[in-house]
Specification:
This protein is of the alpha+beta class and about 140 residues long. Helices cover about 20% and strands about 30% of the residues. The chain is built from two helices and seven strands, in the order βαββββββα. The strands form two sheets. It has a five-stranded antiparallel beta sheet with strand order 1-7-6-5-4. A two-stranded antiparallel sheet has the order 2-3. The two termini are about 15 Å apart. The relative contact order is 0.23. The N terminus and C terminus are likely disordered. The structure holds a DNA duplex (15 and 15 nucleotides).
DNA sequence: AGCCTTTGACCAGCG
DNA sequence: TCGCTGGTCAAAGGC
């Protein structure tokens, strides 16, 4: 249970809400399409104002979902992101650490960047030793 | 030609 | 002590 004892504080965001918000704020489709052409799994990720590098993907049996691993491209930044999904309509983003730099994407500063701002806000909350509601990793 | 993404393999921790 | 799961690294392929 140590894995769920707060040792790792991840942000749990329902991507459905995220995508909904992003779509409302961005009339243009700015989602990045990440296609797994090998297994046919398709993952659509919204921009969050930061540049991420995907460094791994695995299927987590306990939760029955795929999990993708991302690192912030900024060398000095240790922020990480994990995206879990069982289907394109059921995604969850988890964040670890906070960014040590401002958003590099042009999405920042735009009037319609509320989604990115919310994203940053979560990151700040996370970094302020205020762990968000922890997702319970209970296998079915 | 260079950069980014994807995938398989390896390592560490826990039960 | 062994097996399993999760996380990360490095190489290859595609754009």
């Amino acid at each position: 249970m140590e894995k769920c004892s707060g040792k790792e504080h991840f942000l749990d965001l329902q991507l459905l809400d995220w995508m909904k918000l992003a779509r409302e704020t961005h009339e243009e489709d700015r989602e990045e399409q990440d296609t797994d052409h090998r297994r046919g799994q398709r993952l659509v990720l919204p921009e969050d104002g930061h540049e991420w590098k995907k460094y791994g993907q695995k299927f987590i049996k306990k939760i029955g979902k795929f999990r993708s691993y991302f690192k912030c491209r900024k060398q000095e930044c240790v922020a990480k992101k994990r995206v879990e999904w069982s289907s394109p309509d059921n995604l969850r983003i988890l964040y670890e650490g906070s960014h040590s730099h401002a958003s590099s994407s042009s999405i920042q500063g735009t009037p319609s960047s509320s989604a990115a701002n919310q994203y940053s806000l979560y990151a700040q909350v996370f970094g302020s030793d205020q762990p968000p509601s922890r997702p319970h990793h209970q296998h079915p």
